[in-house]
């Protein structure tokens, strides 16, 4: 059994059970087998975690360290994650269903944020501002918020923790992490490595539960929690935003997307197909930045579909533990039913299924064939809603103006992609797409060095790059007066 496969939560440096003694099972979505069980914690347990994080912060066990000391401890954590890549990836694949090679890739990608923020810890600079009068000096400091509550999703169970916790800890904050109920085991494994890295007790706490609402409510309303970072659905994000309003709490939200993927006549079609495969089918299409609405210009429409169809039908579908698997299962029954409903609705509205469009019960209960649908009716659900699954919906367009109008006619604005070899068009479209991140001739765009986040209902704040630390700091202005220089 893996030494990182844990069955207890982490509060104040101790591995603990739920106060009411409940556990819940974590199952492999590929075969339904139980991998393990974790504490089904409640608001009382979450309060203990908040108290521990508060003590660690105000006792200066973390915020009182020098930036160099925090940097070194984060580097220790980074190296331990790197050393345990295979073990973490196996846990991740077992609980999320993603192919083992994708899980290994996530460990590397997620750990890049830990490395980045370990380095950024020493670059949280203040400012000296020129004073308007001769006897004053004006200084600006960046100080840590305090306790930060981090609520993370199932689809990137390591990267969404490291992207948040790395920034928070670099700034000097302490954290309470509430991982998704589908994938708590990866979170516990990473937290164990934080402990092994020498990060003091109470600095990193993990509360596991399958009853998230009361704990989310506590995070938002507790005066001892000074910041909330949430990645998940827009609907839940809006609830947390409202609940945090009374305390005027600092909130960072990375919410749902509905990413357009535009292929212009000037595009290199082979590169566009490659980009579509990378963006759409990673983690079985279950990513917030996954290409969702495909707009293909009429001049290369047939060629693009022909190339994409060949690639989609060659995908290797199976259990994530196999090294050659490219597409795994959907995460749970709710998501599976949603995907089935999308396709059924499209067929009923006379959309054309070019490939797939059916469950794969011979592989497993939660497997669905990678699907291409064209002739999308505007009233079809896949025309308007985020799919979050392995469905490519293709819409033909005539002009750039038409494509941009439809692409921007959404209240979501996380990521967008387009392919064009026309440099004039590249700059024009990149500026006009109403999204927080744009991939130009590229289907994979996220990196630790770049700001991650959206506009409109896709969230507020940014993660990654040097801007990511801003979500966990307050700016303090200091005015030194009555100085004598003569």
TrEMBL record:
Keywords in alphabetical order: Oxidoreductase
Gene3D superfamilies, A to Z: Aldehyde Dehydrogenase, Chain A, domain 1 (3.40.605.10), Aldehyde Dehydrogenase, Chain A, domain 2 (3.40.309.10)
The entry sums up its family as follows: Belongs to the aldehyde dehydrogenase family.
One short Pfam family name for this protein? Aldedh
Kindly tell me the pathway this chain contributes to.
Amino-acid degradation; 4-aminobutanoate degradation
- Name under which the protein is recorded: Aldehyde dehydrogenase domain-containing protein
> What GO molecular function annotation could you give as one example from this UniProt entry?
succinate-semialdehyde dehydrogenase (NAD+) activity
Annotated ranges, domain Aldehyde dehydrogenase: 15-478
Biological process, per Gene Ontology: gamma-aminobutyric acid catabolic process
Report whether rRNA processing shows up as a keyword of the record. no
Q: Which GO terms describe its cellular component?
A: mitochondrion
What are the catalytic residues?
A: 254
Keyword Oxidoreductase annotated? yes
